[in-house]
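P.,

For your records, the input lines for the assembly:
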Amino acid sequence: MLELFKSKEKRAFLFRNLVRLILIFITFIYILPFIWMLSTSFKADRELYLFPPKWFPWPLVWENYNKALQRFPFFKYLRNSVIITGGSLLGVLISCPLVAYGFSKIRWKGRDFFFYLMLSTMMLPGAVTIIPTFMIFKTLGWINTYLPLIVPSFLGGGAGLIFLVRQFFNTIPDDLVDAARVDGAGDLQIYLRVILPLAKPVLFLISLFTFLGAWNNYFGPLIYLTDESKYPLALGLPTFFSLYGTYWNQMMACATMTVIPTIIFFVIAQRYLIEGIKITGIKE
Amino acid sequence: MTKIERKEFIKGLLFISPWLIGFLVFTVYPIFASLYMSFTEYSVVGASKWIGLANYKKLITDFLSLKAISNTLYYAAGLVPVGLIVGLVLAILLVQPLKEILFYRTTIYFPSIVPAFAFATIGVWFFNPYIGFMNNLLKIFGIQGPFWLSEQWVKRTIILMAQWGAGGTALIYMAAIRDIPRELYESAELDGASAWQRFWHITVPMISPATLYYLVIATLGALQIFDLPNIMTGGGPANSSLSFVMYLYQNAFRYGYMGYAASMAWILFVISFILTMLIFGTTRYWVFYYGARR
Amino acid sequence: MKKLVLSLLIVFLLISILPIYGQKTVEITFWHNMSREVDKKSIEESVEKFNKTHPYIRVKVLLVPGAETEITKLMTAVAAGTGPDVYYLDRFTVAQRANEGVLECVEDWLVKAGVDVKKLKAQFFDFAIQEATFKGKLYALPWDTDDRVLYYNKKLFKEAGLDPTKPPKTIAELDAVADKLTKIKGNVIEVFGIIPWYSQGWHYTWGWAFGGEFYNERLQRFTFGTDKRIIDSYKWQKKYADKYGMATIGAFLGMFGPEVDPFIAGKLAMKVDGNWYLANLRAFAPKDFEYGIAYIPSIDGRLTTWAGGWSLAIPKGAKNPKEAAEFMMYMATEGQIKYAIDTAHLPTVKAGVPELLKADPEQKLFADLLAVAKCRPVVPVGALVWDKLTEARDYVLYGQKTAEKALADAQKECQEALDKALGKKK
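Structure tokens returned:
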């Protein structure tokens, strides 16, 4: 047995498979909610409340998906979700790193004051600010439009995201910025030419968080929209809840369809995260 | 201010102007409105009546609000460190060069994507004392698992359950790890540093900016925890999992005590502010910005 | 001369426009949260019919999904003056919302529209009118109702050697039957006879089954903290908690989660549930599932149940309250009868009952019970009372307080809130 550990190659082989084993175990735990959603979405009505619950219903009841699609105008809601999410995404990508740059790479008096001021806006629960906020949007005539859901994204996208990007900008060497300044570049140029290309991983992070936040935002559309034809998918899902008996199978079918775009977005966008990873934290 | 300072000041303001405009237009008024509300008796509709500090006085004599505060602090004390460890461990595992790593990465992020209600049943089943996954796992090691959803355990269970959402933290750490220059590791290896030494002396300081972000955001998030206990237990059994914001929400909309809710919100604000400042106060001892001029 | 011609022209123009303005279609908005398919469809069909028969009014329906959150939308919108004209409100909160100033007085608008309110009220069951009334005036019109019964599993009855045609009538019988039905293997409960507080076994359910009274309306005082019968009903539930242990019961229920129903799974022999549960059993229970429906057992064998349900109200700031009242009148009567036939919800309008029974004869037991059904105390702090009673029950079950203490504490808190809401000094 000891022979095995002697060569470096074999040690690496063992280590790799140990990691693999741990990951498979963890993945199993993390995939359960998804499997449950999928499995419920294929159950017949009478299989729903059985005990012990069935993990692998057979035959698969595709009809649930059909019914879920007919419950509300699914594709119209999908379109609305795309508009809200797309708008938010665009807004955040334009404005959030810009603001973060101001909090990171420019030295100015009052920067820390404004930074802490920004953080403190996250400390009040929304329940007590929602009514005055609503009044402002009403004064602007924005009720029953997507503006209350999208415009804030163009204004930095929230303290949390700005803070995140600022942390990543802070790790980019100041020497790079200074070198560009010596070459006569203005801050806007430095931001666009030097900082942004280096910031792809964090841009991925804020895109993903914005996407998820906008796609699953239930409370905002609920409060601001008063026209069913403007509802996004996140408002379609809870229509399956009923005080008088819930068809979990149809709801999970709808949830599955709602989730798919997010998964696709994740898989496509995540390559920006790994781009360039050659060596890792602990051990190779 | 000197001329250069003024120039930099204006430049700084210009860069943060999107946020500043949003702050002035959409945030300032609601903040002050809620502060005003906290000194009034106000039920959302109709006039508000100034009652001075009465809401705040009620707060410290209201048994349930004190219970909810203590529950919430318990959540924060658990969620922040546990989430940090789980997120970091996941990140380290997920940057390993395996062929199928994309699969693991995606699945570990799944629970953050799946709508919350899909969790309730799985969570309950996972932690069932007789047939659940956890206790069967513990049984292998000869441990008799607890009644996870009993009043003694429910907060700990919710803290554990929240780790299904650790994918977000893991991604942030992965991005931070990716940003570490390779040369650092290479030269350390040449110097004969062990894997642990490399982790402790290179990885940990290099990802400390991400850790600072995590600590602040996780603390603020934990203090406002709402969804998970609301879905899993509704605050029960016997209010042992009731969070402060759950109770606040009930007061604001269910009972129509908006003024009282506002006073609760401002107490939470003060707690949040103090904790955030405490975290920032320690940063110079442990947060390290690589490449920043000292 | 020119001036005269011009002014004549203007007058003429105005006159020619006026009739159009007079007949201009008034749009009213109606928010509801009945997302179940048959419910939603029935409401929409009634609205459509109303729109056809009332050409000058156009009702626009909006489904507001969510159970607890939808009230947030209403409150926010009403606070900003963008609320709907008609809102679908949990009837037991009418008094509270009326007191908060969220609702228009419907009765005033009905009177203005020339409706004989007394005659209108007589069309509905008393308890429903009571719940919709605040300070002697209607603040809502009753919509559907519901009541609670005992469901039991006949197969489990047979297996335990019990007669499935003789469900328990008194609390003593219930205890005996439940004991026989409960099967324990080791420390795991395989079949539970009954878990009193599960599902619709609320504080009100058992408090009334024990003959207690929660509120004295004349004195405007709560009585549940001192009423021995209600204290007894809590103590009785505590006996179950002691016998099996809350952790064990919690673990038993924890096998099912929100999606799986232990009664349908054949693991729970009896449960108190509402009339709507009948539809669930028909849709979700195995085909060979044999269930029985009986009255809730009471301390002395008397019939007992309580009724809840929904109502239609006009929020403050409604743009067209007069037309809204007209629409509500239609919905609460004609619309409600159609709703009962389509959805098997119990109507509060008496004329709806025979129509419902024609469509679904199995509802007879529920319909008959409406004559004895109680409604929760009509007070402006209804939600708070509900939550405090639930909290007190938890404290008792988990052994943190005695029944006497828990109920007395809850009563004190509720009474203080009530006095404040009614503007009484301490």
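Two observations worth noting. Residues 72-274 of chain A form a domain with the MetI-like fold fold (CATH 1.10.3720.10). Chain A touches chain B through 96 residues (CB under 8 Å).

Regards
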